[in-house]
Amino acid sequence: MKLLVGLGAVAVPLVSARIVAPRGPSVSYDGYRVYRVDTHADVATVESQIRNLRLVNFSPGTIDHLDLAVSPEDISAFDALGLDAAVVHEDLGKDILSEGPLRPYLRTTESADLPGLEWFDNYHPYEDHLQFLEDLHLAFPDNSELVTAGASYEGRPIQGIHFWGENGKGGRPAVYWHGTVHAREWITTMTVEYLLYQLISGYLDGTEDVKAIVDAYDFYILPVVNPDGFIHTQTTDRMWRKNRQPRDAERCTGTDVNRNWPHFWNVTGGASDSPCAETFRGLSPGDTPEMQSLVAFTDAVAAANEGGIKLYIDWHSYGHLILLSYGGDCDARVENYERQMELARGTAAVVETVDGSKYTAGPVCDVLYAASGGSMDYVYDVAGAELSWGYELSPADAAGGGFVLPADQILPTVVENWEGMRWLLSTM
Ligand SMILES: *[C@@H]1O[C@H](CO)[C@@H](O)[C@H](O)[C@H]1NC(C)=O
Ligand SMILES: [Zn+2]
Q1: Which of 4, 21, 140, 241 has its CA 20 to 30 A from that of 211?
Q2: What pLDDT, on the 0 to 100 scale, is given for residue 12?
Q3: Average pLDDT rounded to a whole number, residues 25-42
Q4: Which residues form the active site (predicted)?
């Protein structure tokens, strides 16, 4: 059973029946060559040199380097620019094949049991993610409910799950996670689902530390906050990042939902005001349907729980980074900086013990670049979270596949980050 749950005074909009599934011809990335370009700190010059080339920029907003996938027709023109560029992958199309086919979800167990862990061997169609979420709820029926944070531009529910331990619903501070705001970052969906799976299965098994964690918090987990974009990556363009909202009189589609939060929105250099750009911030603060849904839901989560939001994480890929605020004000430091850094570094240290992945922790502005209108600044400053992070998962770099992580890398990625989260949730 699906429940539409209103939190506090906020009415959660009912999802409209207007489900649109545009199916254009699939974009082919066969023969696209992936480069890592050293910009020598002059990204503006490099961007103007490559402006007319057919390519995908994997790292919009970075300063010191750009990861670019260049179309086969433009490889010679790109090489002729003489940039400080190294080829890291010969053929993005081949990499996409290495992700394997989207595997339909086959339940092998009784409906009251948890789904099997083989879910994490493959990527899956969007509808199956909804079924997976519902099945987790059915396996933990008295301690969980399905929640809907409003609707996307194309009218899809932004679906999540809320669960709690022995203190009952709404009785403890919130742990609040978002996955897949950037549509092409597929590993984030799988990671958020694995963490959720481990929390619920550990609770059901009576695993002591996991039971203590679930008893201590109310969890609100939204594995796919940009469903329209995510579906577009599955049907049409694997490299799509933004939502799917056209803008009047513009030939480009999509707003970067993670530059559209109504806080530090109009900051020079933190986002783009061009509708064609990967980091297009929208026409005014919070003007995407996704953002209106997420802001209302976030504020409701902050208000509904005793103790507000303890931990927020916006899951992204790639780069092996644990990021804290601020992204919208590079001169400011969060008030509890030492505490947040200690926990972020501690999480990174635990992740490294599993398989050697080295995560770097720090404020967005220091580690990456200015990023305005981002979730973590809003959730820290406005929603009052104690810890508010952005988390860049595997791979470490474009050489590891960028957004395209082979299916056999899903399990190692989710397992190491489960250990990190298990430590964090027990320690914070
Ligand atoms: C952004 O800020 C600048 C400088 O304060 C201002 O001129 C401009 O109108 C603002 N833009 C929007 C869309 O609010
Ligand atoms: Zn991202």
Answers
A1: 4
A2: 39
A3: 92
A4: 392
Q: Which ligand is nearest to the CA of 273?
A: 1
pLDDT at 5: 41
Residue whose tokens read 């050489």? 399
Q: Are residues 186 and 332 in the same domain?
A: yes
pLDDT range class, residue 115, cuts 50, 70, 90: confident
Beta strands in 144-204 (DSSP E): 144-151, 157-163, 174-178
Q: Are residues 77 and 115 in the same domain?
A: no
- The pLDDT score that the predictor gives to residue 160 is 98
Quote the mean pLDDT of the chain.
Answer: 91
Nearest ligand, CA 285 = 1
Do 85 and 109 share a structural domain? no
Residues 299 and 385 reside in one and the same domain: yes
CA atoms of 75 and 378, how far apart (whole Å) = 40
Residue 181, phi then psi, degrees to nearest 5: -70, -35
Same domain, 291 and 348: yes
Comparing CA positions, the residue from 245, 321, 250 lying closest to residue 288 is 245
Q: Within a 10 A sphere around the Cβ of 251, how many other Cβ atoms?
A: 8
- Is there a single domain that holds both residue 13 and residue 119? yes
Whole-number Å distance, alpha carbon 428 to ligand 2 midpoint, is 25
The contacts of residue 19 (CB under 8 Å, 6+ apart) are 154, 155, 156
Return d(Cα 242, Cα 229) in angstroms, integer. 6
Cα 363 to Cα 232, 333, 369, 388: the distances in Å are 31, 8, 9, 11
Q: Ligand 2 center to residue 38 CA distance, Å?
A: 21
Task: Tell me the three state secondary structure of residue 276.
Answer: coil
Range of the domain at 46: 33-90
Between CA 306 and CA 181 the distance in angstroms is 27
Helix runs in 26-114, H state only? 43-49, 75-80, 92-98
Tell me how far the alpha carbon of residue 181 lies from the centroid of ligand 2, in angstroms. 7
Residues 310 and 382 in one domain: yes
372 against 107, higher pLDDT: 372
The CATH number of the domain holding residue 49 is 3.30.70
Which ligand ends up closest to the CA of 229? 2
Spatial CA neighbour of 253 closest among 267, 264, 241: 241
Q: Which residues pair with 176 in a beta bridge?
A: 220, 312
Q: How many domains does the chain have?
A: 2
Residue 387 burial class via C-beta count within 10 angstroms: exposed 0-12, middle 13-18, buried 19 and up: buried
Q: Which residues contact 126 (CB under 8 A, 6 or more apart)?
A: 224, 227, 230, 231, 234
Query: Mean pLDDT over residues 254-273, rounded?
Result: 94
CATH number at residue 130: 3.40.630.10
